[in-house]
Write a sequence for this structure.
């Protein structure tokens, strides 16, 4: 998993049927100090996160597990909202 | 598996149910010479690791889910060992 900041959401009308009702968020991965690191990505939301929140997300096939049994074609999913984190 | 240094802790109340009672640690992947390698990651801890320890991390869903003891959990990284000693010859 990785920490990220939610910086937006995506509206898509024409999409794979199994994505109906799935919220898509724009994420900016962040480093330990909260600064941006790496490229932004789109992730499916499973916890009700919103713009401005710090979240953690999972990459790969595991991102589709929360939607099981439908096999949803996603490669990243937000799986938690961060209350706070501490480094050191 | 990857070597990583535990650098921090993360607290999350609202998370996917398969994460219930799971401990989340921030880890920085490192080379065998303890130099940082790539971005920091969030991993499930199943062995009781703490900040500043050198650990073994699996970066694969099935293995991470097994470390958590739950099938089909949306996890992709887990700490599966604490390194006591590391010998590298070059």
């Amino acid at each position: 998993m990785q920490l990220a900041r939610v910086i937006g959401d995506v509206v898509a009308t024409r999409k794979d049927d199994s994505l109906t009702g799935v919220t898509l968020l724009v994420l900016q991965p962040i480093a330990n100090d909260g600064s941006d690191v790496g490229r932004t990505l789109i992730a499916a939301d499973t916890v009700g996160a919103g713009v401005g929140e710090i979240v953690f997300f999972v990459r790969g096939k595991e991102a589709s597990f929360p939607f099981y049994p439908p096999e949803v074609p996603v490669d990243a999913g937000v799986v938690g909202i961060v209350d706070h984190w501490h480094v050191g | 598996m990857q070597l990583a240094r535990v650098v921090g802790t993360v607290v999350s109340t609202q998370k996917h149910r398969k994460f219930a009672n799971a401990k989340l640690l921030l880890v920085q992947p490192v080379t065998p010479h303890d130099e940082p390698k790539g971005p920091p990651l969030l991993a499930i801890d199943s062995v009781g690791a703490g900040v500043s320890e050198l650990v073994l991390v699996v970066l694969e869903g099935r293995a991470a889910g097994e470390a958590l003891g739950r099938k089909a959990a949306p996890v992709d990284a887990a700490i599966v060992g604490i390194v006591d000693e590391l010998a590298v010859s070059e």
The beta strands of chain B are 2-11, 23-29, 41-45, 54-58, 78-82.
